[in-house]
Write a structure and sequence with these properties.
mainly alpha; about 65% helix; globular
């Protein structure tokens, strides 16, 4: 599953819209986050690892590395 599909699935499960996520990121960063720009980054799968980590932290998830 791609990061795009995984993130969208998690956001849907938590009933969080991109608009709401952008507001949460703004509050954490103290910087403007546009919902359209955030949506485009997710759709292009161009988020940096630390951005994904930050988003997951905000919605209450952790990244887990597990040996196969």
């Amino acid at each position: 599953m791609t990061i795009k599909r995984r993130l969208k699935s998690l956001l849907a499960n938590e009933e969080i819209k991109i608009k709401d996520l952008a507001k949460m990121l703004e509050a954490k960063r103290n910087a403007k986050v546009l919902p359209n720009g955030l949506s485009q980054k997710i759709n292009r799968s161009s988020l940096k690892f630390d951005e994904v980590e930050e988003i997951l932290d905000i919605i209450g998830y952790d990244i887990v590395f597990q040996k196969r």
